[in-house]
Write a structure and sequence with these properties.
single chain; elongated
């Protein structure tokens, strides 16, 4: 047998390592693909959208079945303007106006905080409130307010997070634990605001009503009253936005897209403005004689921006 025959005879044996290498490459390719899928599901907006579409329950606002007749609003307010938000901001869950530094703060469902100019058309700064993967922090932040140049952020947490912006950017401060001192244990905080004059914190916990946390460490539940009070359970109000103006509290009720003017002492609802064409409202900020209302949306939908309403004089 010549040399060429010997070489051919040994070829099948020499091919075995090549088959093993091919198997290892296939396993590595599958592992990489699974890793990319896991990364996409945990950290990317597209992946989170797919995960929530497939596995999350429907959390849209349910149809209301009030026992009493619908309330008659004091007046209907037609949208005066729509402000587009920067592309980086999706699913806004809360908004606040800082008159001291002339800026807006916008919180999102992704536990992000954005600082914007009065025009709302640019991001001046931003930070992530929770460093967890995007999928795990989705929907945890519901509201933001600002007082003494500090941002107070709350939602589905056991405390109110406190952040401030210094020369080095946004920095976290010790939070306000719920269940201690003047902050009793509550459910998910859907809306929050601070009276700039007294420091009184007003919040709405899971739509159950309004809670006032006073500077002396006490807290009280504000019972809503008056002829304009809707004849239904308070949970149906679905208060998702608050502004404490000192002499009145302005509450944004997602149940009917209404603005309720509430006396902070008696709880009487004195005025009800119905917001025409508002969409799925998620937060409110008052600046001068205008109400800036954030509108929620799905990942797959274009951002509807911020609805602006002109408020009638008191």
């Amino acid at each position: 047998m010549d040399n060429s025959t010997e070489i051919r005879a040994h070829l099948p044996a020499a091919s075995q390592p090549r088959k093993r290498r091919s198997g290892i490459v296939a396993i590595l390719a599958v592992a990489v693909a699974l890793g990319l899928l896991a990364y996409g599901a945990l950290y990317t907006r597209t992946g989170v959208d797919v995960m929530f579409t497939l596995f999350a329950p429907d959390q849209s606002i349910p149809d209301l079945n009030p026992d009493g007749p619908p309330i008659q609003p004091t007046a209907n307010l037609v949208r005066a303007d729509t402000r587009s938000l920067p592309l980086a901001i999706l699913q806004p869950s809360g908004i606040a106006w800082d008159p001291t530094d002339e800026r807006f703060l916008v919180a999102t469902d992704q536990a992000e905080l954005f600082e914007l100019p009065p025009s709302l058309d640019a991001v001046k700064s931003s930070t992530v409130i929770n460093g967890a993967p995007l999928l795990l922090r989705q929907g945890q932040i519901e509201t933001v307010t600002i007082s003494d140049e500090r941002a107070f952020i709350a939602g589905d947490y056991d405390e109110i997070a406190v952040w401030s912006k210094g020369s080095g950017g946004w920095q976290t401060e010790p939070g306000l634990p719920l269940g201690l001192g003047g902050l009793p244990t509550v459910g998910e905080i859907a809306a929050m605001s601070v009276d700039p004059a007294t420091g009184t914190l007003v919040l709405s916990d899971e739509g159950q009503g309004l809670l006032l946390s006073l500077q002396d460490g006490t807290a009280l539940r504000l019972q809503l009253t008056g002829d304009l009070r809707p004849s239904r359970s308070v949970s149906e109000y679905q208060i998702v936005g608050l502004h404490h103006g000192g002499d009145k509290i302005v509450a944004l009720a997602a149940g009917w897209n209404d603005l309720l003017y509430i006396d902070p002492v008696t709880g009487e609802i004195s005025t009800v403005y119905s917001l025409v064409d508002a969409g799925e409202v998620s937060g409110i900020a008052l600046r001068k004689d205008q109400a800036f209302v954030t509108v929620d949306h799905e990942y797959s939908e274009a951002s509807p921006g911020v609805a602006v309403y002109a408020l009638p004089p008191d």
